[in-house]
Amino acid sequence: MSDYIRQHYGQTALHALSQTQLETILHLLQHGQLSIPQPQQRPPTLRPLLPAEHNTLNQLVTKLAAATGEPSKLIWQSMLELCGVKSGELIPATHFLPLSYWLQARQTLSAQSAPTLTSLQGALKQPLEAAEWQTIVDFARRSWQVTPRTTLSPAQILALLKGLQEKHRLAYIFISHDLHVVRALCHQVIVLRQGEVVEQGQCEHVFNAPQQAYTRQLLALS
């Protein structure tokens, strides 16, 4: 991780990186493009996290949870999935620095200014056509009397996505731990655990009558 940052950006301090650079690091981590050793491949003598290292990660998780409102348990779950470590297993010490970078990057990004239509457009992998952009601007102006640079609340962003979905019959694919957003926008749900399908079905059926213990656990935490 530090080698990648040094080679591409000439430094290793996360706070010195731009928002675009931090987003690149997060994308690479979440899509497995930065190498994180898998526990099943580790030598038997590889030690687990020391108590001090675990406490450091726990402090970073607590700060991130306070900043984003995401439950600490779900943040830890995401960390285990990034490492390929099953619940109840000890995290190998080799994951300490990558996980620290991941938590610090998310913390830094969470402190950025609240989203606007302009910043949301800039975050898209595929730029909007002029007509598509104008449709969104007009929808937001009619609904909330806002401009492209007005800060949007989470509820407004959700309403914007849902309104566009219904008007233009859009299909969304969400990979998220935010079950409130999933329930508000999605028609079909697939529950994954460590990359494997645990449960799937109609959204309301899964939320109202989950069949698997893991699904019920996620719903209890939301």
Question: What would you note in describing this structure?
Answer:
- With 222 residues, the chain is mainly alpha-helical.
- 56% of the residues lie in helices and 6% in strands.
- The chain has helices spanning 2-9, 19-30, 51-68, 72-83, 96-110, 117-123, 130-144, 154-168, 179-185, 203-208, 213-221; strands spanning 188-193, 196-202.
- The chain has a two-stranded antiparallel ribbon.
- A hairpin with a 2-residue loop joins strand 1 (188-193) and strand 2.
- Helix 3 packs parallel to helix 5 and helix 7 crosses helix 8.
- Mean pLDDT is 79; it is low at 36-45.
Summed up, what is this model?
The chain has 222 residues and is mainly alpha-helical. The protein is 56% helix and 6% strand. The chain has a two-stranded antiparallel ribbon.
